[in-house]
Design a protein that fits this description.
14 strands; membrane; OmpA-like domain-containing protein; BON_dom; Bact_OuterMem_StrucFunc; about 25% strand; cell outer membrane
Amino acid sequence: MFSKWLGAGVLLALLCLALSALLSFLKVPSMEADIRAALDNNGFQNIQVEMDGNQAVLSGKTASEAQKSAAIDIARNAECSSCNGKRRWHTVQDQMSFDTLPTQTPYTFNAVKDSNGNVTLSGYVPSQTAKADVLLAANRIFNTKPIDRKIQVANGAPDGRFLEVTEKYMTELSRLDKGRFSQEGYNGLISGTSTDVGVRRDINLVGQSLPGNYASGFAANIVVPEMAADNVGEVKSESVCQTLFDDLKSDSRILFETGKANIKGAESFDFLNKLASAANQCASFRIQVDGHTDSVGEADYNQWLSEARAETVKNYLADQQVEANRMTAKGYGESDPRASNDNEEGRAMNRRINFTVTRAQ
């Protein structure tokens, strides 16, 4: 009798083991899909996953050891959608490798669209495959072959979604008449010009759709002619702030009354208002306002005039809520000409106000 009970118990145990194995087997495709989705959602589309029983085997290449570790953690923490309570029941085996590339800091990517629709790309990507993908995406988005200005392969991307954000920025840049975007780590700025206020409104909302830290690092400065500035976000890069000022200045000038420090013309004030808005986006940096003159008149008077004009511009920006203690004004007189003073065109180029962005001490 005892032997019969023993035999029945053994049989029941074997049946339980078989049932458990069957259930585990049925979970395998679902678990593989769950891990695949988790990797894809975090920018690791290039990592392969294959289930061996309850073991998820990861293979492929990452851009760095840190990204390799991140992929393992993501796979390990993936939930089992077909399990009770979505509890994890799998393990992870690492068969990945990572490229021994130089690490770039800061990790940047830039695109410039000119008024003729030409597009120039530069910066860093994590692999040659990524470079090819970016160029292909740019060709599709802008409907033109982009100019590759030394796109380089390097480690240092903040995470696996950097290029996903790059493509989003390219899509928005394509809507502008001309402009650029600048990425530096998680931070990014889209700037430029559009005649459509609706385009500016849409781009100002882009940050809300960006993943993770990219959302808080987003800024936009879109100029709509004859409309007040309406910018969003803080620009956190010194070089990007300088480029923003230079771009705004490339299309406009500050005009003064002849021989005086009085600003004249509605266009001058409109330009200064846009500069003030940009300066307030660059709240972490100092701004030096430099005045220059042509060589007409006495050198001493030109020195005074350049100082007075720089001070006038500084004071106007302060009136537009730019912190005065972040700004300095300096005059150079006629000492630093940009063109010949022998003709009116050259003298007009030499009468100018420059802006230099530096990190606050």
